[in-house]
Amino acid sequence: MSQAHLPTPHQRSIIATRASPIAETSPPRSDSIATPEQRISRLEGAYEQVDARLDSIDNRITSVETRINSLESAMNSRFNTLYVLIGGAWITLMATIITLFLAT
Questions:
Q1: CA 56 to CA 50: how far, in whole Å?
Q2: How far apart are CA 99 and CA 104, in angstroms?
Q3: How far is CA 58 from CA 1, 53, 65, 76, 78, in A?
Q4: Could you give the C-alpha distances from 2 to 5, 9, 10, in angstroms and in order?
Q5: Cβ pair 34, 26 in contact under 8 A
Q6: Of 33 and 87, the one with more pLDDT
Q7: pLDDT for 51-81, tens place per residue?
Q8: Within 10 Å of residue 34's Cβ, how many Cβ atoms?
């Protein structure tokens, strides 16, 4: 057999890991011997974890909404300032045009 076809040490460890039975590496399942109270207790624990995660997500969304609202109010105030400046410039331009028209 040629040297190119032999597995490397890393490949041999992967092959050995795949060859081992799953039952030896994983703990036995206790679902079949769990009482209904134990199952309900596990479900309640899982529910509490989901509830805590959803609360965290809700807090993050509220934070994002607050930031968006503050940015929106800042943009509105800047646009209002811009409208006032544009209006003032337009009035000044019209006054200048009327003055020049009447002066000639």
A1: 10
A2: 9
A3: 62, 9, 11, 27, 30
A4: 6, 16, 18
A5: no
A6: 87
A7: 999 999 999 999 999 999 999 999 999 999 9
A8: 13
* H helices, E strands: number in the chain: 3, 0
Helix, strand, coil tally for the chain in percent (to 5):
85, 0, 15
Segment (H or E) for 11: helix 9-19
CA–CA distance, 77 with 75 (Å, rounded to integer) = 5
What is the per-residue pLDDT across 9-46, written as a single tens digit (0 to 9) for each? 666 666 655 554 554 455 555 556 779 888 998 999 99
Tokens of 77: 């105030």
Encoded amino acid at 33, one letter: I
pLDDT band at 104 (very low <50, low <70, confident <90, very high): confident
pTM: predicted TM-score of the whole model, two decimal places: 0.47
